[in-house]
Amino acid sequence: MRTAQETLDTYYQEMRGRALALAADFDRIQRSAGSDKVMTDPRLANLKKCFEVLLSGKENRAAQMQMILSDQTPGPK
Amino acid sequence: MRYIDPHIHCVSRTTDDYIYMSRAGVVAVSEPAFWAGYDRSCAASFGDYFRHLVDVEPKRAAKYGIDHYCWLCINAKEAENVELGREVIKLIPPLLDKPTVLGIGEIGLNKNTPNEITIFEEQVELAAKYNQLILIHTPHLDDKHKGTSIICDILKNDSRIKPERVLIDHCEEHTIRMARDHGFWAGLTIYPVTKVTPARGCDILETFGPAMICVNSASDWGESGPHMLTDTAREFRARGHSEAAAVDVFYNNPCRFFGQNPKWKHAPIDTSRMGTTSRVL
């Protein structure tokens, strides 16, 4: 099985590309008409919470981010 | 290597996909009944769709050396129309004895509404009455966690339903534990934009272990494809997992779940003599 170093070496370029793509997504929204209002959209707020998880250094980041992006209200009776 | 795609909507795919699957080593597929991308106007449309699944698609697949199996139901999205749902459910029992029908599916929830839950429960009742395997569709995106929770609660509270005869599909990082802890099979759908990428699929296999997990492409009319299954197998091997481990995940696991229906013809491969050495591609 791969070591952590080998894993990083394998995925780094993809990770770099995905990070840049996300930054460009935010730039695209910001330079579009009406960006002031959209920047407070709850979906973007949730994404920003996800980034905090990403930078937290804790494990299970994907599962934690999934829960931030999930409807957690009670189901119908 | 031989593959099975345990969830693919061949009615929405081109013949090129059958050629690809045949070349790649896919020997069998299972096709659940689903939403066609538009709401159908009447129950008769489902009658024609079921005929396509039961009669037409197996012949199309056979030309490429692929065994085609299917599942019947009204999908969660159109189940919002309860009256239509009940009309469609009446069409199903006479077809359950057809030689390639594996069970009831993919039933489940879409937006987690009371109407969807009503028809879901009625289709669970149908499966229990006719002792059928069940294939579950869990909702997409924000609705997935809540919907999976509702589905698991309904199933585990019905003593007639044996968990090992149910596959909870489209599991992700935050729902797979729910399915597995209740003793259900879990499906991983490699469908990058709305579900799981090949790398995340392999992460889940490594984190939770491969037992009772079926990996599928769920290829349909959206951005998807049968190569997602084989790409995931490549990623799995590239990480150093042995051929035997790959066969166990991508061929034997579907055989184990589907093999609970005697109509399923494929048996798990004995991997004990296969190479256990890892290979980094």
Describe the structure.
The complex is a heterodimer of chains A (77) and B (281). Chain A has 4 helices and no strands. Chain A is mainly alpha-helical and 77 residues long. In chain A, helix 3 (42-55) packs antiparallel against helix 4 (61-68). By secondary structure, chain B is of the alpha/beta class. Chain B contains 9 helices and 8 strands. An 8-stranded parallel sheet of chain B has the order 1-2-3-4-5-6-7-8. In chain B, helix 3 (82-91) runs parallel beside helix 4. The A-B interface holds A 1-2, 10-11, 60, 62-63, 66-67, 69-73, 75-76 and B 112-114, 117, 141-146, 149-150, 172-175, 199-200, 203, 238-241, 278, 280.
How is the topology of this model organized?
The complex is a heterodimer of chains A (77) and B (281).
Chain A: H1 4-31, H2 35-38, H3 42-55, H4 61-68
Chain B: E1 3-5, H1 15-24, E2 26-31, H2 43-62, E3 67-72, H3 82-91, E4 101-108, H4 114-129, E5 133-137, H5 144-156, E6 166-168, H6 176-181, E7 185-189, H7 198-208, E8 213-216, H8 227-238, H9 243-258
Parallel strand pairs in B: 1-2, 2-3, 3-4, 4-5, 5-6, 6-7, 7-8
Helix pairs in contact in B: 2-3, 3-4, 7-8
Strand content of chain A: under 5%
Specify the CATH architecture of chain B.
Alpha-Beta Barrel
Could you give the count of β-strands of chain B?
8
The number of strands of chain A is 0
Residue-averaged pLDDT of chain A: 94
Radius of gyration of chain A: 16 Å
Gross morphology of chain B: globular
Regarding CATH, which class of chain B? Alpha Beta
The rounded distance between the terminal residues' Cα atoms of chain B is 15 Å
Largest sheet of chain B: 8 strands, parallel
**Category by helix and strand content of chain B:** alpha/beta
Largest sheet of chain A: none
SSE succession of chain B: EHEHEHEHEHEHEHEHH
